[in-house]
Design brief:
The complex is a heterodimer of chains A (115) and B (115).
Chain A (H helix, E strand, L loop, with lengths): L3 E4 L2 E4 L5 E7 L5 E7 L5 E7 L6 E2 L7 E4 L5 E5 L8 E10 L5 E5 L3 E5 L1
Parallel strand pairs in A: 2-11
Antiparallel strand pairs in A: 1-3, 3-8, 4-5, 4-9, 5-6, 7-8, 9-10, 9-11
Chain B lengths: L2 E3 L4 E5 L4 E3 L2 E3 L5 E8 L6 E7 L7 E2 L2 E6 L4 E6 L8 E9 L6 E3 L3 E6 L1
Parallel strand pairs in B: 2-12
Antiparallel strand pairs in B: 1-4, 3-9, 5-6, 5-10, 7-8, 8-9, 10-11, 10-12
Classes of the chains: A mainly beta (115), B mainly beta (115).
Chain lengths: 115, 115
């Protein structure tokens, strides 16, 4: 049981390049999320997916697209990277508990540097 | 929109002593959840403790406990018998009961533990 895995761990891009961040979870969770964390700040939600086949925008979706490929995988794509997208990206998944309680499980993060 | 404020960017504690990290939040909702996450240098986000707003009893997890003051919208984390392994950045987070997965995070408090 690996939990939430993310690839790559670190990436350097030039402005205008595109890339896809991969995320997978093996806990059979319905919900998955993508966050970004800028230096000295908390996490901000980019996109989330409540179930396979559905996605919704979070707080900072501009410049990103997502794909919920199946229940396990949720990818984040940068079509044309900008220096402002330099950040650490976290994927998370969550289980639905009785009474609406919910705990998010996070991946190890992907450090992205856009030059 | 909900906001979460952590007014202490940095805190330090002597090993074996007790430290309290502060968190306040702003919401007009009555049903919600509050969380404390720990982020060590590895950047993995780890759930420390969770509090349901409808519960008056403060949550406790071993050496970690919270002081939840709903009327004051305050949610502080107390770490007893601090250990070197407690050194990390700690994030307070809020989630509405009707807003699955959309958590709002504070900017974090960096905790240093001195031997």
């Amino acid at each position: 049981n690996a939990g939430v895995t993310q690839t790559p761990k670190f990436q350097v891009l030039k402005t205008g390049q595109s890339m896809t961040l991969q995320c997978a979870q093996d806990m059979n969770h319905n919900s998955m999320y993508w966050y970004r964390q800028d230096p000295g700040m908390g996490l901000r939600l980019i996109y989330y997916s409540a179930s396979e086949g559905t996605t919704d925008k979070g707080e900072v979706p501009n410049g990103y697209n997502v794909s919920r490929l199946n229940k396990r995988e949720f990818s984040l794509r940068l079509e044309s990277a900008a220096p402002s997208q330099t950040s650490v990206y976290f994927c998370a998944s969550s289980e639905e508990l009785a009474g609406g309680r919910e705990t998010q499980y996070f991946g190890p993060g992907t450090r992205l540097l856009v030059l | 929109a909900q906001t979460v404020t952590q007014s202490q960017p940095e805190m330090s504690v002597q090993e074996a002593e007790t430290v309290t990290l502060s968190c306040t939040y702003d919401t007009s909702e009555s049903d919600y959840y509050l969380f404390w996450y720990k982020q060590p240098p590895s950047r993995q986000m780890i759930l420390v403790i969770r509090q349901e707003a409808y519960k008056q009893q403060n949550a406790t997890e071993n050496r970690f406990s919270v002081n939840f003051q709903k009327a004051a919208k305050s949610f502080s984390l107390k770490i007893s018998d601090s250990q070197l392994g407690d050194a990390a950045m700690y994030f307070c987070a809020y989630r509405s009961a009707g807003n699955a997965g959309k958590s709002t995070f504070g900017d974090g408090t960096t905790l240093t533990v001195k031997p």
